[in-house]
Amino acid sequence: MIEAQGLTKRYGKTLAVDDLTFSVTPGRVTGFLGPNGAGKSTTMRMILGLDNPTSGQVRIGGKRYSELHHPLRTVGALLDAKWVHPNRSARAHLTWMARSNKLPLRRVDEVLDLVGLSSVAGKRAGGFSLGMSQRLGIAGALLGDPEVLLFDEPVNGLDPEGILWIRKFMHRLADEGRTVFVSSHLLSEMALTASELVVIGKGKLISQSSTEEFVARATDSTVKVRSPQLEALREALERASAQVEPAEDGLVVSGMDSAKIGEIAMQQGAVLHELSPQRGSLEQAFMQITGDSVEYHADLEAEARDVLAPTAP
Ligand SMILES: Nc1ncnc2c1ncn2[C@@H]1O[C@H](COP(=O)(O)OP(=O)(O)OP(=O)(O)O)[C@@H](O)[C@H]1O
Fold this sequence. Notes:
Blueprint: E1 2-11, E2 14-24, E3 28-33, H1 40-47, E4 55-60, H2 71-74, E5 75-78, H3 90-100, H4 106-114, H5 130-142, E6 148-152, H6 160-175, E7 179-184, H7 187-193, E8 196-201, E9 204-210, H8 211-218, E10 222-226, H9 230-239, E11 243-247, E12 250-254, H10 258-268, E13 274-278, H11 282-290, H12 294-308
Parallel strand pairs: 3-7, 3-8, 5-6, 6-7
Antiparallel strand pairs: 1-2, 1-4, 8-9, 10-12, 10-13, 11-12
Helix pairs in contact: 3-4, 4-5, 8-11, 9-10, 11-12
This protein binds adenosine-5'-triphosphate.
Adenosine-5'-triphosphate binds near residues 38, 39 and 185.
C-alpha cells in the first residue's frame, strides 16, 4: 500500500508536484498517468526517498521510506534501466546488489529465471538491448521479494513483444497480491495494463478511479442496437427520452443504458440482433477531463496521435 498525503515538491519556481493525495492498493496494477513533465518521476522519487517533499508526505505500508528496516524487502523499483555498470554481467550486477543490501545470494538466480535472463546471466549488461535491460532492472526490483513495486515508464522504447511481456509480468505480480504502481504517458498502454488509474496533470491530481470508471465518466457512452423492428423501436426509445441516431445497420442510442433499452425492446415485442455498449477510449477520456488546460490538451493530442497512428509502411 502506498499513501500520499498533500505531497508537494517545488524546484525553485517550478511546482513539480502540487498537493497530491492518492493511494495505491495491493493486488492490482495501478497506472500513474500524465503527460511528459506532469510530475510522475518526481512523485516516484519521493516515494523512494530519493527526493524530499517540500510539504506533505508519502508512506509505504504506513512508513516513510527512511523508516523502513529493509527497504529492498519492502519496495522494489525500476526507474532507469540503463544505470547498470556496462562491463558488469547481469549476474554480477545482481550479486553486487544482493550483497550490498544483505539479501540472500540464492535470490540472484531465482530472479534471473523469473525475468527470463538465465541464459545471458554471464554476459555484459552493456551489450543488452533495451528490452533485456528492462528485464534486468525488473530482476533488481524483485531481489528483495518486495510487496510494493514501482516502475517508471517501463515500456518506453520497447518493441511490441517487449511491451506485451512487461504487461503480462505486471499482471502476474499484481495477481500475487503485490502493490504495482506503474507510470506512463502512453494512454492506450495504460488502458490495457492498469485496472486503476491515478491521473495527474501539471503536478495536480486530476482523478483516481478504476480505468473503466475514468473512461465512462469522461466519455459519452452509447449503445449500438440492431433489430428487424428498427422503426418501432426507435420511436419507443425517443418517447422514453433517449437520443437516437441512425447507424449503418442499426441505431446508436445515447442517454440510456443497455438494460433499459432491452426492457423497452421487450415491451415493444422488438427482436434484438445486437445490443452492445460502445465505450470511449482512454484518449477521449483524458482529453475531456483535461480539456480546459490548453497546454496539456495540445500535448496529449499529439501523444494520442502518436499512439494511435498506424506506422508508415
Ligand atoms: N531536479 C529538478 N530540478 C528542477 N526541475 C525539475 C527537476 N526534476 C523535475 N523538474 C521539473 O519538474 C516537472 C516535473 O518533472 P517530472 O520529471 O517529475 O515529470 P514526469 O511526469 O515524470 O515527466 P517525464 O515523463 O517527461 O519524465 C518538470 O517541469 C521538470 O522540468
